[in-house]
């Protein structure tokens, strides 16, 4: 069934059949499962249940090719999100069509816009929400486009490292509520938010982040009218355009998260993270533009939240963010991530979020 509540997580379906409409009518939205999650979380905390749910050497049965003697994190920080390995299937053979041929994507819908060596491609969140990873090649560069719905974190990586080209899948695990990926070459585990190997032979290795934009489809079309757009390989595989995490960004607390909460700001407020520094989105929205040491952050309206209403195109307006820096008299895009405040605190503990 779609969106079943498994070990504290609302899951996309593992099988091909989609029962989205019936499950939403039965279970409502994300808020309806939230009280159950809080109750479960409390039981786990009181009775030390995290040990039973967290990472353990028994994972060697499911992951015989992963070197569990190498790790940079504590086992109890890694939790099962519910699905098994590749239960949320990455896209390995992306199908695209020209921008001019797209008729079912609202102008305000969010996409990850990427331009490399003159080639432009949009990856709609209506697809990434269900697959989380796309292994692709654009402008001659092997890339992995990632999106973690529980963190609202969209990051693009160069798949080349140490003279090899890697491709990635989903482990079904979470750390600090963030997607834990794995590479299929060594089956090492990687933290999506940091692009860092955390378990296995690639522990400590760092993927290169490629600047991209989380932007409205309208904005992507304006800057790349000759670009193309990712479309489903099988349109019937998922209910693309629907939001399986309805109401999540209006929740009071993050899901399946046991770390420190940010101070002075709601943990579910969006923040713009650039090079290990964060600004609250409400601050940027209020000011319209923030400049610092040559860095320019700009906000404009016109993009739906992918984590609000049951239909992504109807989500409230969270706006578009552009981050750039002057170089040789020209502006160039800088890698950034629009994520939640708790995510920044989890991965950059002790650092302040700019709020005024």
Could you describe the largest sheet, including whether it forms a barrel?
5 strands, antiparallel
CATH superfamily of the domain at 95-231: Rieske [2Fe-2S] iron-sulphur domain
What's the architecture of the domain at 95-231 in CATH terms?
A: 3-layer Sandwich
Strand order of the largest sheet: 3-12-13-14-15
Helix vs. strand class: alpha+beta
Name the helicity range.
10-25%
Rg of Cα set: 19 Å
Q: Cα distance, first to last residue?
A: 45 Å
Under CATH at level 1, the class of the domain at 95-231 stands as: Mainly Beta
Q: Residue-averaged pLDDT, rounded?
A: 87
Taken as a percent bin, the fraction of beta residues is 25-35%
- List segments where confidence is low: pLDDT < 50 over at least 5 consecutive residues: 1-28, 38-55
Which overall shape is indicated by the principal axes computed on the Cα atoms? globular
| CATH third-level topology of the domain at 95-231 | Rieske Iron-sulfur Protein
Helix count equals 7
């Amino acid at each position: 069934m779609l969106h079943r509540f498994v070990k504290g997580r609302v899951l996309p379906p593992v099988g091909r059949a989609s029962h989205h409409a019936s499950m939403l009518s039965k279970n409502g939205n994300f808020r309806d499962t939230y009280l159950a999650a809080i109750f479960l979380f409390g039981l786990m905390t009181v009775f030390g249940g995290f040990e039973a749910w967290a990472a353990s050497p028994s994972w060697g049965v499911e992951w015989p090719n992963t070197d569990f003697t190498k790790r940079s994190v504590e086992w109890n920080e890694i939790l099962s999100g519910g699905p098994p390995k590749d239960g949320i299937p990455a896209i390995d053979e992306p199908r695209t069509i020209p921008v001019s041929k797209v008729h079912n994507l609202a102008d305000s819908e969010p996409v990850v816009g990427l331009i490399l060596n003159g080639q432009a491609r949009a990856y709609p969140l209506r697809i990434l929400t269900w697959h989380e990873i796309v292994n692709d090649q654009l402008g001659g560069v092997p890339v992995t486009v990632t999106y973690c719905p529980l963190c609202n974190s969209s990051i693009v990586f160069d798949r080349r490292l140490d003279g090899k080209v890697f491709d990635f899948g989903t482990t079904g695990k979470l750390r600090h509520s963030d997607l834990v990926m794995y590479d299929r070459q060594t089956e090492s585990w990687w933290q999506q938010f940091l692009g860092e190997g955390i378990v296995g032979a690639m522990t400590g290795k760092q993927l290169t982040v490629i600047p991209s934009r989380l932007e409205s489809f309208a904005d992507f079309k304006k800057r790349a009218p000759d670009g193309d757009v990712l479309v489903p390989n099988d349109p019937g595989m998922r209910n693309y355009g629907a939001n399986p995490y309805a109401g999540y960004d209006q929740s009071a607390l993050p899901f399946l998260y046991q770390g420190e909460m940010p101070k002075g700001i709601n943990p579910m407020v969006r923040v713009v993270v650039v090079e290990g520094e964060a600004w609250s989105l409400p601050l940027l929205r209020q000011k319209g533009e923030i400049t610092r040491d040559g860095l320019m952050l700009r906000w404009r309206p016109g993009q739906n939240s992918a984590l609000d209403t049951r239909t992504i195109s109807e989500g409230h307006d969270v706006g578009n963010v552009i981050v750039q820096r002057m170089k040789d008299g020209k502006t160039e895009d800088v890698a950034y991530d629009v994520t939640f405040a708790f995510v920044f605190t989890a991965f950059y503990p002790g650092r302040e979020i700019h709020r005024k």
